[in-house]
């Protein structure tokens, strides 16, 4: 996020096209990604020209921190700072990729030793321990051999 200020109750989005052209828009925290796409489509900046303009707003997708945003996610849910500028990419894409690799996907780092696997099952701690972790950190899962990304 940048340091440019905007009114304290809005989120300033700096959107970047694949061509590198940028424009800034202001939204409320309750605005969804779909609402952002619709607003940008209806208020397409003149200096962007028609090179990447699409026929309908549903094709426009936002990318934030390397991930496509689904249409119903709000800017507030992303914990974007109000009054500050956040940079996102805006790309035309008909369909979103499948979300099979979610943030809470568990990856076991155990070796193939069957005895350790049996110990892991018998001594497992409930996985709710990770609920208190911050979304940007890796934490231990049900045991110290399991990592939640």
UniProtKB/TrEMBL annotation:
InterPro entries in UniProt: Ubiquitin-like_dom, Ubiquitin-like_domsf, UBL3-like, UBL3-like_ubiquitin_dom
Pfam families with a match to the protein in the record: Rad60-SLD_2
Ubiquitin-like domain span: 11-95
Region called Disordered, residue ranges: 92-118
Top-level lineage group: Eukaryota
Name by which UniProt lists this protein: Ubiquitin-like domain-containing protein
Organism encoding this protein: Rotaria sordida
């Amino acid at each position: 996020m940048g340091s440019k200020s905007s009114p304290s109750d809005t989120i300033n989005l700096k959107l970047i096209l694949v061509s590198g052209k940028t424009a800034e828009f202001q939204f409320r925290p309750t605005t969804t990604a779909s609402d952002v796409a619709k607003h940008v489509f209806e208020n397409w900046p003149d200096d962007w020209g028609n090179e990447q303009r699409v026929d309908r707003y549903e094709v426009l997708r936002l990318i934030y921190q390397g991930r496509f945003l689904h249409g119903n996610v709000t800017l507030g849910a992303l914990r974007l700072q109000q009054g500050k500028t956040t940079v996102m990419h805006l790309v035309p894409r008909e369909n979103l990729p499948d979300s099979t690799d979610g943030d809470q996907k568990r990856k076991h780092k155990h070796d193939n030793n069957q005895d350790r696997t049996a110990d892991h099952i018998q001594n497992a701690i409930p996985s709710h321990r990770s609920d208190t972790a911050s979304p940007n950190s890796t934490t231990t899962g049900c045991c110290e051999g399991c990592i939640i990304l």
